[in-house]
Amino acid sequence: MSTTFNRKHLLGIRDLSAEEITYLLDTAETFRDVSRREIKKVPALRGRTVINLFFEASTRTRTSFEIAAKRLSADAVNINVSMSSVSKGETLLDTARNLEAMAPDCIVVRHSMAGAPHHLARMCNAPIVNAGDGSHEHPTQALLDGLTIREYKGRIDGLNIAIIGDILHSRVARSNIHLLTKLGATVRVAGPGTLVPAEFAELVEHGLRVEQRIEDAIEGADVVMILRIQRERQNAAFFPSMREYSVHYGLHPSHLERASRDVIVMHPGPINRGIEISSEIADGSRSLILDQVTNGIAVRMAVLYLLARGNHSAHEEASVKPAGPAGPVGNAKRVRKGIRA
Amino acid sequence: MKLLIANGYVIDPSQGLNAGMDLLIEDGRVARVLDRGEPAPKDAEVFDATGLMVAPGFIDLHVHLREPGQEYKETIATGAAAAVAGGWTSICAMPNTDPVNDSPAVTRFILEQGERVGLAKVFPIGALTKGSGGKELSEMGELKDAGIVAVSDDGRSVPTAGMMRRAMEYARGFDLAVVDHCQDHSLSAGGVMHEGRWSLILGLRGIPAAAEEVDANRDCALARLTSARVHLAHVSTRGALEAIRRAKELGLRATCEVAPHHWALTDEAVADYDTNMKLNPPLRSRDHVGALLEGLRDGTIDAIATDHAPHHADEKGLEFDQSPFGITGLETAVGLAFDLVHQGVISLERLVELCATNPARIFSLEERGTLRKNSWGDITILDPDHQWTFDVSKSKSKSRNTPFDGRSFKGAAVATIVAGRVVYLHPDFARITASKHSQFAAGR
């Protein structure tokens, strides 16, 4: 690996270079094997403390970070702060200062407000991982999506990727658009006009198109990513009914006939069956929804390892390497070959 | 009590003065303008303004002084001190205090506090509707008798066209300007920054330019219907300026102001989620900033007003979504206005027109904004060449919420005189004067 990842925080994909993203994905690949072993643990972060600070309900992401930390032998502490108790009293700043006083090696934060992790990063000495901030970014989700695409397509460069649904409010869409276009893919987004502003095309310099019809976005796509529709959006009058959404913007098997023959379908979960995605597709052979979850652990192990290790010694560096001769090394090479340098 | 402001360069657009002259103030009022060398009364105290510009006192049509009710953010004393340090001799206080200034008692309180402090002259603006609730008209007649100079529900727009029409018709009877914060709530609700590329990148809820443009067009149409005076506060969009430009062509009594941050910064400044970049109206995109510069140049914009909005550090230290809108502005506005002069956008004369002549006319502040005989002896002394850096730790305001800490400026107000009394003198004034003398000598 020619490059490294020297950042203190992981706040978003937009700030990262293509080389840094590739390095993160390569590192994640080396960790994938740990979860396949009988003893799913390496001592890489032994004695380190990772705090999962979740201001917004999350099962999947929080569990994924927790398992990732534990498989690296870190002590993981989960703090679930309901927004109501925060609004009553302690500010984010005071929460952060208190946690800081407990000397964590990394704070993973999920917050309903965009920019909250940046706020923490300014105030805290500990590295901050953004586990989703409002409608802004969800960098580890994009990394695990990128890892999954690389695993199945062997590359990201040159692929056509459709992202369908509520683009306006989606941090998953934003992080993925940054990651995929930086790595050379062409991204087309589509959904109801109220949730896909035309100005979205200016989000990145190149490689992004806004389509009015989901059929146009899916035409010839190698990857179709479906976003979760938030039921509360309907109350905000972004679209008339779930029924109408499902008919016009839900993904049905007929849509996939327009896509490339070996199209893969992804969804960040949790899925609303029969609304944004039909069950036939969600449970079908093209669906990688569960692979995404598995890769989430590897990506989060990589991120925690790179950020929480601090000033590591050579010995610690060595101890992370998978012990056995079998495992991900060969696999990683196979996948990496597909990536254009 | 006589004060002779000697050897300066007098700029007064109200009477077309733009020349090296002396100015005599007697008993708080302008006595006369003297040609250079014309003998002055021997008993006059002399203020040496060699190499400096002498302008009618600057009038800020839009400040939030927070007193009564939010004295932890600002008081009339600290706000007035910041005003004179920034070159403003008069400040017009928005009514969104606690309680709201919708009663003569609050109006009189603000006036009395202003007098007691004795720095900048404080003019209260009354609420347009009771409690600024947008439902019932305030007692504008009573308020005018108590001393208000305009009516406004600033911070929120007048919610319906029907309400705005009634307010304008009623205010017309008292010759009060109706000041509107143009922003259609149904378009802006929940928004925290300008809607555009940057709001999409940052995942923050946007306030579209159209929210301001819809209301600006509405208000101009109503100005036509009612013949009332309407003043659009802190315009920030191309569309609002187009509406005002058209209204002026039609001869309507429509005016507008612009706040310095709206030409000095763009929405890109929000990129780090710095809450000192959170404003309402929000910092706009380059295209809108271009339109503001055009409006400053071509006369569409009548006034520069700061929208000075102090907030406590604890409030500005919240998440971007939670933090209140607004920044302090009294001490940086003139510096930012000089940027426009040095960039060739406006002349020095136009700067004075924007900060003194026009504001006095818009709120009918009689005997201010001019150096005509018997006008108030309110003077702003400017040094267009003074280079300085804003240090917020030395700010006279009680709050510290500025995006301009550490910014360098060229051009400043170096002395502020209210009713013939020097209420602010730049800490380095002696050094500035000395350097002007040596320049002057070298020039000769």
Notes on the structure:
The complex is a heterodimer of chains A (341) and B (444). Chain A folds into two domains: 18-136 and 295-328, Rossmann fold (3-Layer(aba) Sandwich); 139-291, Aspartate/ornithine carbamoyltransferase (Rossmann fold, 3-Layer(aba) Sandwich), CATH 3.40.50. Helices cover 40% and strands 13% of the residues of chain A. Chain A is built from 15 helices and nine strands. Chain A has helices spanning 18-32, 60-71, 83-88, 92-100, 116-123, 139-153, 171-182, 214-218, 232-235, 242-249, 253-256, 279-282, 289-308, 314-319, 328-337; strands at 49-54, 75-80, 106-111, 128-133, 160-164, 186-190, 208-211, 223-226, 264-266. In chain A, strands 7-6-5-8-9 form a five-stranded parallel beta sheet. In chain A, helix 5 (116-123) links the parallel strand 3 (106-111) and strand 4. Chain B has 444 residues and is an alpha/beta fold. Chain B has two domains: 2-54 and 377-443, Roll (Urease, subunit C, domain 1), CATH 2.30.40.10; 56-362, Alpha-Beta Barrel (TIM Barrel). Helices cover 33% and strands 23% of the residues of chain B. Chain B has helices at residues 76-85, 104-117, 140-146, 161-172, 185-188, 197-202, 209-226, 238-249, 260-264, 286-298, 313-316, 333-342, 348-362, 429-443, and strands at residues 2-12, 17-26, 29-35, 45-48, 53-56, 58-63, 88-93, 121-124, 126-127, 150-152, 177-180, 193-194, 206-207, 230-232, 254-258, 303-304, 379-389, 408-418, 421-425. The longest helix of chain B has 18 residues, at 209-226. Chain B starts with a strand and ends with a helix. The model of chain B has no long low-confidence stretch (mean pLDDT 96).
